[in-house]
Amino acid sequence: MHLSEILTHLGEDRHRYFEAVAPPVIQTSNFAFRSLDEFRKAVSEELEHHVYTRGNNPTVEILRKKLAALEGTEDALVLGSGSAAVAVAVLSQVQQGDHIVCVQKPYSWTWKLLGKWLPRFGVETTFVDGRETARFEAALRPNTRLIYLESPNSLTFELQDLEAVARLARSRGIVTAIDNSHCSPVFQNPAAFGIDIVIHSGTKYLNGHSDVVNGVICASKKIIRSIFENEFMTLGAIISPHDAWLILRGLRTLELRMQRSDASARKVAGFLKGHPRVRQVLHPLMPDFPQYELARKQMRGSGGLFSFLLDVDTLEAAERFFANLNRFLLAVSWGGYESLVLPSAAFYKIPGKPDTPLPFQLVRLYIGLEDPDWLIEDLAQALDRM
Ligand SMILES: *Cc1c(COP(=O)(O)O)cnc(C)c1O
Fold first, then answer.
1. pLDDT in tens, 20-49
2. Ligand 1, atom 2: nearest CA belongs to which residue?
3. CB of 98 shorter than 6 A to ligand 1
4. Given ligand 1 and candidates 203, 206, 243, which is best to mutate, with the most ligand atoms within 8 Å of its CB?
5. For residue 154, what pLDDT band results from cuts at 50, 70 and 90?
6. pLDDT tens, 91-110?
7. Ligand 1 contacts CB of residue 298 (under 6 A)
8. Domains parsed from the chain with CATH numbers
9. Which of its termini does the chain have fewer beta carbons within 10 Å around, N or C?
10. Span 128-140, average pLDDT
11. Is the CB of residue 180 below 6 angstroms from any atom belonging to ligand 1?
12. Separation of 113 CA from ligand 1 center, angstroms?
């Protein structure tokens, strides 16, 4: 289906709400039935009917339809955060005694779930360097139930070969899941390579305005129905209809925003690459990136996120760079309209904690919707004054 059809019309049934162009926010906790028969029918298949907003709400349902179509899967669920989506998706596939293989350096709270939390319940995870598919194969055990991917990851951008990992997993009857937040569905569709479960932090690009936290799970009808009836309804980590409405509004401009951020990020990365105070630029779609060919095969773009290394030898010099930036906000997260800078130096000198193993020269930039030349001016003056 054409992206324009999905973002503009799909899932919207305007006859049901006065031909309103923008859908209504159905801000209700529950739904009443006209007859006992209708009531019975609805509770027998709650995913397809409106019974209670912890299950299926009509405003959220429009969003679910669009998200499933964006990823090319049969169905989707929306949750209260990306971390809730990761946790619910993972919990749906494992039980006590099972084993997971996960790419190394996943998102921090995913690492906490798999590395620290699930072992308490008898589920073990092996973390592997995902740049080589053979590492996944070598880590498999008879009780491996899930392979968990994040391609690229959102700090140093290592990729996994989605088609090869999916083929390996299918040949062994193992489910695959991926965190696809970096690319958004505009630039990468893992289901097309055979990945079973596609997860997003919709807080980032999908909503795109830095004002809603949410998460998404896209998969087959069979997987989604099972997750809905078990983990989703039990854990209750939903979003409000109003937040779903804001994400629907954000989606109207998803393609435009992705294209703008992607083009601007390439321009800014190009500027930094030639700068004498920059040691290295890490951007998966720059030709000197080690996995450039694989990135070109799997990704239609990369969006606004990339990293670089400052050419400095002391933390103090790096600190001067951040102190002099005026047009980038110092902040975590990404995917909104505003450009952000995340220094690994922010994870140094924290009382009671060891410094991050990442070099203090590492800087992650998120390029938002501003004029890239205006952003380059700011970077240029801060690099000169370092
Ligand atoms: C932000 C993020 C998450 C977590 O999403 P929240 O919406 O913040 O809970 C998961 N994965 C990646 C790659 C992220 O960047």
1. 999 999 999 999 999 999 999 999 999 999
2. 201
3. no
4. 203
5. confident
6. 999 999 999 999 999 999 99
7. no
8. 3-251 (3.40.640.10), 254-384 (3.90.1150.10)
9. N
10. 98
11. no
12. 13
- Cβ neighbors of 230 (< 8 A, separation 6 or more) are 92
CA of residue 180 to ligand 1 center, whole Å: 10
